[in-house]
Amino acid sequence: PRPAISLCVPVLPLQKIGEDYVRDLSQLTKLHEFVDDDLFIREVAKVKQENKVKFALYLEKEYKVKINPSSMFDVHVKRIHEYKRQLMNCLHIVTMYNRIRRDPAKLFVPRTVIIGGKAAPGYHMAKMIIKLINAVAHVVNNDPAVGSKLKVIFLENYRVSLAEKVIPATDLSEQISTAGTEASGTGNMKFMLNGALTIGTMDGANVEMAEEAGEENLFIFGMRVEDVTELDRKGYDAQQYYNRLPELKQAIDQIKSGFFSPEEPDLFRDVVNMLFHHDRFKVFADYEAYVKCQEKVSELYLNSKAWTKMVIRNIAAAGKFSSDRTIKEYARDIWHVEPSDLKIPPPNE
Fold first, then answer.
1. pLDDT class for 12, splitting at 50, 70, 90?
2. Residue 199 to residues 76, 162, 211, 341: CA-CA distances in angstroms?
3. Burial of 288 (0-12, 13-18, 19+ CB in 10 A)
4. Rounded Cα–Cα distance for residues 64 and 327 (Å)
5. Mean pLDDT along residues 114-135
6. How confident is the model at residue 15 (pLDDT cuts 50, 70, 90)?
């Protein structure tokens, strides 16, 4: 897999394990010793909160949306593509919005959902997905019944300089591609290293991350590769999920009827039509498991100490995903060369 080149290696471990981990990221495993250290837990939580406050101020300045920095920062940044399933995230946003409107007094763990990424110039469906996210954001962010419980932001022009701001501020990293479709994303590793927990399918590098940190330290949901294969064999029928799941039906009906696009009621007909008849990535099949898993995420987020302990376990397990480790293994196993301290003089000498 492509190695994860860290954008912002956490500085916190310096106080606990020294600074050699910067050259040898496998030394992060020493952090396992501090998983139950109350002071360290508080320090990790404090650094994350500082990053969130900084990013919230940036968002307010750039997007003119008042952000609750205590809300869970739920982040989905990557190329806009059907297989990455930004649409499933969007359906979850609509579901949360409907739940808040249905019962405003009920406990709701506040969320700021941040989606970002670029679409290929000729990719019509990806452009429509961006349009839908923005349309949903406009309705949700301007509904007084929702207030600061739920905010949605589409990050424009997602790029490295923006990643450097958003990744350290993320609580929840969305890695929700259909099992068997992701060759090897590396963004998920950067989030892991910078103290975000992952909600994801058993796909791409999520599999290796679960091996390193333990599946119990990620929020894994949905179909595995063999389930997808079996569903292909039987034939995927989106309609049956729509008929069986009232919240899914409500969300789709709203999108289809123009609830989020009152000036152009038919604007998202193509998106809905694709989900029913041409969805190779089976959004409806994983919707129920995804929503239930998100409920578990919210439940854990209420317990700051338990959440941060899981964060520390993830950071401690992130060492394998260093580019240094990858290149060392290539050198040893593929090129059969050993490290050398021989200094080669520059050409001018």
1. low
2. 10, 21, 15, 43
3. middle
4. 44
5. 97
6. low
pTM of the model: 0.93
Strand partners, 111: 72, 150
pLDDT-based confidence at residue 205 (cuts at 50, 70, 90): very high
Tokens for 60, please give them: 């307010």
* Structural domains in the chain plus CATH codes: 67-302 (3.40.50.2000)
Residues 6 or more apart whose CB falls under 8 angstroms from that of 173 comprise 75, 187, 188, 191, 192, 196, 197, 198, 199, 200
Residue 240: which H helix or E strand, with range? helix 238-244
* DSSP 8-state code for residue 332: I
Instruction: Please give the pLDDT value at position 11.
Output: 56
What is the 3 state secondary structure string of 247-263?
HHHHHHHHHHHCCCCCC
What is the distance between the terminal CA atoms of the chain, rounded to a whole angstrom? 38
pLDDT cut 90: percent of the chain above it: 86
Closest CA to 75 of 155, 157, 183: 155
Interatomic CA distance for residues 300 and 213, integer angstroms: 17
Contact 111, 140 (CB under 8 A): no
Q: Write out the two tokens for 285.
A: 């099949």
Residue with tokens 């309705």: 139
